[in-house]
């Protein structure tokens, strides 16, 4: 493998972790606490955008700040334990480390809760940056010098492209492979289990198919 290093950014929800069971449990508890129906099954089919966008489907605008705070307070108790790493997640982070590179997680999630997930699952990136969605992710990618960003959502593709980073997409979330390609993903992998081989080829300068 070539000796040069690389910084790779990763999205969190539905890229590194399957947070649907945990988020579903958190929404169900939120619904019970507030007395307001939230269709948790539906909510977990559209993960990616910031929490406030989902809450706007169920609560009036003036309550969104209050309800967001309550959800984030409930999250550690209800959402961390049920959440699993997606296949290849740990290996993808390790592949970057073996290549002499750095891995960063850039997510729209509340940063302390993102860190709880990673710690619970034993996934250890070099940095975690929260509260950034879609194009805003480019801020962190540029700051950390990331040249690759891996995500599952068309918003992740937009963030990568704005940062002039290679967009590597995995259709493990709400967006299918063709939708990700049409959004401008440079590479579409089946899932993260294919990432170490792709990274080796990328660093060696060999063309890698999508």
How does the SSE layout of this entry go?
Blueprint (H helix, E strand, L loop, with lengths): L6 E4 L6 E2 L1 H15 L5 H4 L7 H5 L8 H16 L4 E2 L3 H10 L3 E5 L4 H11 L5 E3 L7 H7 L4 E4 L2 H9 L3 E4 L7 H7 L3 E2 L6 H10 L6
Parallel strand pairs: 1-4, 1-6, 4-5, 6-7, 7-8
Antiparallel strand pairs: 2-3
Structure, described:
The protein has 210 residues and is of the alpha/beta class. The chain has 10 helices and 8 strands. The strands form 2 sheets. It has a 6-stranded parallel β-sheet, with helices on both faces. Strand 4 (102-106), helix 6 (111-121) and strand 5 form a beta-alpha-beta unit.
Briefly summarize what is shown:
This protein has 210 residues and is an alpha/beta fold.
Number of strands: 8
Structural classification: alpha/beta
Overall, the morphology is globular
- Give the CA-CA distance, first to last residue: 20 Å
Count of discrete alpha- or pi-helical segments spanning 4 or more residues: 10
On the 0 to 100 scale, the average pLDDT is 95
Largest sheet: 6 strands, parallel
Gyration radius (Cα, Å) is 17 Å
Q: Strand sequence of the main sheet, in spatial order? A: 5-4-1-6-7-8
Helix content: 40-55%
Low-pLDDT residue spans:
none
Order of helices and strands: EEHHHHEHEHEHEHEHEH
Q: Proportion of β residues?
A: 5-15%
